[in-house]
User: Fold these one by one.
Assistant:
Number 1:
Amino acid sequence: MRHIISILMENESGALSRVAGLFSARGYNIESLTVAPTEDASLSRLTLVTSGSDRVVEQITKQLNKLIDVVKLIDLVENEHIEREISLIKVRATGAGRDEISRLVEIFRGRIVDVTDTSFTIEMTGSCGKIDAFLKAVPNDSIIEVVRSGVLGIARGEKGLRL
Amino acid sequence: MELTGADILVKALADEGVEYLFGYPGGAALHIYDALYRQDKVKHILARHEQGAGHAADGFARSSGKPGVVLVTSGPGVTNVVTPVATAHMDSIPMVIITAQVPSHLIGDDAFQEVDAIGITRPCVKHNFLVKDVRDLAATIKKAFYVATSGRQGPVVVDIPKDITAEKTEYVYPKSISMRSYQPVTEGHSGQIRKAVQLLLDAKRPVIYSGGGIISANCSDKLTELVRLLGYPCTNTLMGLGAFPADDPLFVGMLGMHGTYEANLTMHECDVMLCLGARFDDRVTGDTNKFSPYAKIIHVDIDPSSISKTISADIPVVGSVDVILDEMIRQIKESGRKPDAEELQKWWQQIDGWRKVDCLAYDHDSEIIKPQFVIQKLYETTQGDAFVTSDVGQHQMFAAQYYKFNEPRRWINSGGLGTMGFGLPAAMGVQFAHPDATVACVTGDGSIQMCLQELSTCKQYDLPLNIINLNNRYLGMVRQWQEFFYDRRYSNSYMDALPDLVKLAEGYGHVGIKIEKPADVEGALKEALSDKSRLYFLDFITDQTENVYPMIAAGKGHHEMHLSPRNGDDDDERELA
Ligand SMILES: Cc1cc2nc3c(=O)[nH]c(=O)nc-3n(C[C@H](O)[C@H](O)[C@H](O)COP(=O)(O)OP(=O)(O)OC[C@H]3O[C@@H](n4cnc5c(N)ncnc54)[C@H](O)[C@@H]3O)c2cc1C
Ligand SMILES: Cc1ncc(C[n+]2csc(CCOP(=O)(O)OP(=O)(O)O)c2C)c(N)n1
Ligand SMILES: [Mg+2]
């Protein structure tokens, strides 16, 4: 099953390599990983998407918690949550294709953020599933480049992951 | 007054109560060595190789319970100490390893003797720190000792660039430290403990399986009290030997790959297992699908990630085993309940039947020295009152099986990493921690050559070690596997061109004795053990073909042990892999 693990970590140099090293050393998979400082400059927030059996994911959370720099973590999929990913997608757009792509972008509520005679650059935000669906809808041979941020997530409700 | 980083480091070590610092100098560490020279609180022990320094600090830690402290230079100093760091990490031994680093402004430039110490050690430490500002140095040292010695203990590396050791600041050593990201649990969940006690008292075929966690938590007295209170059989892992007295009738011996017949069958047939500070290592469980099929498992461990890692626990209890043992004993006493005496008696009858197989029997009439015989004589001659370190191989298993450890911290060996070369330097550390004690290092002709240079350190510091070399002219453990599983194709397991170890020992300024006949074993041991002023290198020429029994082959269960030919092989269950 797919899990989204959200981690608060001391903002020390090398903190990220401890997480990445743990995953490679123990053979866990990482589907995506995003890192950025938080409103408290001494903390970083990591959002990590992984998958595995319950037993493996239990070990993953235990091993992450064991890292000395990890302050707190939660598995977002255990409860109601919101997840978002942002993507920047450059497509070839000429002739009749231009209209078709603009329509698709509208249907998926994306935005065209850069235009040339032969291409569009589209910004698309949403769940991973939505971005996947958009990429499927666009004719495959028109895609020039896809850049995805990896997943961000937050729990629904008033509670937050904080100190 | 402002002090240099180097002086601050040395003062901090002194304030931390560090008596011995095991190390080896080099360019990036020179300011620190200069600071050491100008004081006399922290005594520096000069090893002959950083690996020796690391294992010596480790042996000091294992035998004393205090953290072992190491100092090495940058680059090759760091890479040489990685093996001891990993060795300590696998066995959860508290150590603080100071690695000197090239000056801050050169980091990342492929500077002379630069390696990424943080990166190289990251997977084999509990934690590591890079000191970037001299004002953080004292607090970082405090944190390093705190992390190393609390929770599940382990090695911590502190990497200090050379410029930091020259810069100055005020020295203030924090009295205490707290870290928001690291707060190890000690107390167990009381509801879980209550459930565990119920299950334990309801058991018909119980077993108590304990390990290194008991040693680490210094609570073998509490373990002993619990086991005796219940009258249940107790088995120890290789790392737990001495946690429960080996000469107590309730002790069924070590379990696992080379554990006793009675310990492994007790594990296999039990209905309730209480695991205390042990981690269901693959050398212990054998095939996990065949592991203790009838057992409800209670697992007490301070590290949540040890629980249900390889074997699922029915009742997990996270916390320090000393605190939890107290609580269990209290609840059992309060309940006024006793185990079912009739069932327990039946269970012991069954266990005694397994004991009668006498799985550790060996040939006492041999013309050639049997390795088991040497260990048995070592045990008798020292009256069980020695510290015994070992290297890795058959000799290690013989020492574990035939020396009866009645006290914790007497048996010092590398279990998790299985590091050949550990025994001799570890014995040095033990002797520093216990200057008046008898220290024996049981080793093999292969292992001893991996840190042999430390004989020179032993001379410099007058360490009267007793080196018991079980010389079978083979990498015996490898040979044994090749005999069993590779149709006797002895690929590269023969030790051709062995040096004259007696002369070598003499060359280093020690006493060397070669012993070739069983009749001379005891005399040589007595001679060595009675002389507390010199190191004796006893080179016992032992049976080349001896194997370690019992043995559970890979993929087999506890009930599928391979016994010694001496035990006969009439029982179907004890099949050979
Ligand atoms: C050649 C060779 C053969 C071997 N054969 C065998 C064999 O036959 N049998 C055998 O047993 N081993 C054998 N080993 C050793 C084996 O590899 C493991 O090192 C050993 O089994 C682990 O012991 P342990 O489970 O006690 O764990 P340790 O490594 O000692 O770990 C201790 C456990 O206790 C926990 N702990 C620590 N402190 C506390 C505390 N305060 N409170 C609660 N819990 C705590 C830790 O989190 C950890 O889970 C062999 C090794 C070699 C090299
Ligand atoms: C550093 C290291 N390299 C290789 C091994 C693999 N190994 C395990 S036991 C062994 C043989 C040890 O030979 P010896 O020290 O003579 O002991 P014996 O088994 O003969 O008693 C080897 C090579 C190891 N454990 N450690
Ligand atoms: Mg040998």
Number 2:
Amino acid sequence: MATVTLQNVRKSFGKTDVIHGIDLDIADGEFIVIVGPSGCGKSTLLRMVAGLETVTSGEVKIGGRLVNDVEPMDRDIAMVFQNYALYPHMSVFDNMAYGLKIAKTPRSEIEERVASAAELLQLEPYLHRKPRELSGGQRQRVAMGRAIVRKPAVFLFDEPLSNLDAKLRVQMRLEIKALQRKLGVTALYVTHDQVEAMTLADRMVVMNSGVADQIGKPLEVYADPQTAFVGGFIGSPPTNFLNAGLIPGLATGNTIGIRPEHLTLRADGRLQTTVAYTEALGAETLIHCRLPDGNQITARQDATQRIPAEGESIGITWNDGDAMLFDAGGRRTGQV
Amino acid sequence: MAERNGMVEKRGAGLWLTHLGLIIGVLFIFFPIWLAFVASTVTQADIVRPPMPLLPGDQFFTNYGRALTSGVNAPVATMLLNSMAMALGIAVGKIAISLLSAFAIVYFRFPLRKLFFWLIFLTLMLPVEVRIVPTYEVIANFGMLNSYQGLILPLIASATATFLFRQFFMTVPDELAEAARVDGAKPMRFFFDILLPMSRTNIAALFVILFIYGWNQYLWPLLITTDPDMNTIVMGIKQMFPSGDDTADWPVIMATSILAMVPPVLVVVGMQRLFVRGLVESEK
Ligand SMILES: Nc1ncnc2c1ncn2[C@@H]1O[C@H](COP(=O)(O)OP(=O)(O)OP(=O)(O)O)[C@@H](O)[C@H]1O
Ligand SMILES: [Mg+2]
């Protein structure tokens, strides 16, 4: 258990800058999720904390100790890889025990630690199997077990659930969260799935091409995105962005963002639209409308409300407090 | 699956014809070996008097006993031992060196890495026969004529195996090396604990190929062994042929030929099992 501190961390591969200076303070026992689109540098950032990638400039501290030049094994971390990276020729037991064996842990203690990790992860029946004889979910658990037995101060996860099917992903997500709570270990978790980020994180870091656009509690980030990118990335369906020029009294060039659930369909709306198509999802309905300028806007409403017919002309409206104003550079400038 | 069954399961006349074809093919290949075996079990007189016998005689133990203990120039037992040492030395040495050099080339960044790779690759174009004179010079200067080192060392350096292992190592996911690094494995530990066991199928296949390659060497042993006690079996057979008017001791020569075939066959059969198991067990 330890804090992790990143101070103005940068990374370049040759001449290309990938991470442009990230500051992050992680408290002891906190669950931090790094989320962002593909290629934004999430894995690179995580691998710098792990010590698998050198830091170009800035400082990485774990438990207050500067670890920029410390080997991964001496950083007191454990990592779970996206493809699990289990040793194919070793049994589940040996996979979990390998790190301890190298650390010359006494045999009895190795057995004890592996046994308790196996119990925690319900892996006991599989200890003598090879990874290829396990299902995807079980392999994922073995990878977790390998991390747990080392009793690290920090867990690092790089998209650990992205190879699982949707249902298993939800289940493992809950298990990971419960496990982290139980062990009280600081965790740094990378994903591109914003639902995972919202559900797992104590605080999340939304990354956008090498920059941390916003760091905060999931609901705060959701309710109060600091950039248009964050507003668009977090939330599904994404925030609607309208040219502010459409609304009387606002300067053109700016954008306003409104979440689908904040839009209401009404005959006398602020904007007149045509219903393009609707998606009834059961509990809720998504209504995609076309604006006069050709752009689309999506409203989300309760299944109990009337579903307008496609092609119907309808007004759309929202409360002023729900509209977020962004400047031309995508920075948040306030409410409307 | 269904498609594959359809391909394998031929029925009726087609099946019998295929089998007949295969059986004839096998008999055709096997016939000379059979003749050699028959010749190794009869007396010299039986061989030189036509027609040639087609069924084994009763001289099996005398002929093989004579071959093993006295031979023509050197006892076959000694030559078998020499060949065995040479073939094993070449196979094991080559595998060890190529595993290590492939490991270095794939996993380490060192100055002139590319150059070294191409230098190794270049040796592919220089088989023993091409560099035989300078190699002989070097070995002679080292005083390695008539020694196992002299037989083995010049044949160990080669690129084929290095190249093969390099290709295999490049297919091993990087995350495996990284996971081992996080687990605290130093490079050589990673090599022995993870890379080596993962390569065992490749190693088995290469061992078979290299053992036979070493066993069948002819020109090089001929050149550097002058002492009959250092002769290898393959060159030994050739030297049994009489020069001039001497009569050949055909039963002993044939017994020697059959004996020369046994170890490679055993290696192939023995390794084949390991090989198949490796394939069945193989990852992914
Ligand atoms: N070894 C490398 N050499 C050069 N460029 C690299 C290297 N590793 C990553 N990059 C670049 O750095 C950027 C960030 O990569 P990174 O793997 O961190 O993305 P990511 O956010 O994890 O994406 P994903 O969600 O697809 O895994 C990418 O543009 C990638 O091309
Ligand atoms: Mg990644």
